[in-house]
Amino acid sequence: MRVKKILISLKVQEKIFKKHNINRDEIEAVFLDNEPYYFKTRINRYMVIGFVGKYITIVFIYDKGVIEIITAYESSRWQKKLYKEKK
C-alpha cells in the first residue's frame, strides 16, 4: 500500500492518546518505518498491524495514497498472532 499522506484530526489524535496511550509518532512509524500487515475490513475500511516497541492496530480509510486515521490501539492477542504468522 503506497502512503503519500497520513491524516489524523486533532480530536482523534487526543482520543487515541487518552484512551489507548498511543501517540502520532507511533502511528506514523507503523506505516513508514516497519513492515506492517494490511487487510481490508467488511465496512470498506482498512486495518494495519505493526510493531513499534509494542504491537499496534490501526483502523483507517485509504484513498489514492491518503490515509485518514479512525482509531488506533494496542493489538489484541489474535491480532498479534496474525501479524507474527504473516511475517
Report on the architecture of this protein.
- This protein is α+β, with helices and mostly antiparallel strands.
- The chain has a single domain (5-86), classed as Ribonuclease toxin, BrnT, of type II toxin-antitoxin system (Nuclear Transport Factor 2, Chain: A, Roll), CATH 3.10.450.530.
- It is built from 3 helices and 5 strands, in the order βααββββα.
- It has a 5-stranded mixed β-sheet with strand order 1-5-4-3-2.
- A hairpin with a 3-residue loop joins strand 3 (46-51) and strand 4 (55-63).
The shape is: globular
Q: What structural category arises from helix and sheet content? A: alpha+beta
- How much of the polypeptide forms β-strand, as a percent range? 35-45%
| Mean residue pLDDT | 93
The CATH homologous superfamily is called Ribonuclease toxin, BrnT, of type II toxin-antitoxin system
Helices and strands, with pairings:
Elements lengths: L4 E3 L2 H11 L3 H9 L4 E4 L5 E6 L3 E9 L2 E9 L2 H10 L1
Parallel strand pairs: 1-5
Antiparallel strand pairs: 2-3, 3-4, 4-5
What labels would you give this structure?
single chain, 87 residues, five-stranded mixed sheet, 3 helices, globular
Short description:
With 87 residues, the protein is an alpha+beta fold. It has three helices and five strands, in the order βααββββα. A five-stranded mixed β-sheet has the order 1-5-4-3-2.
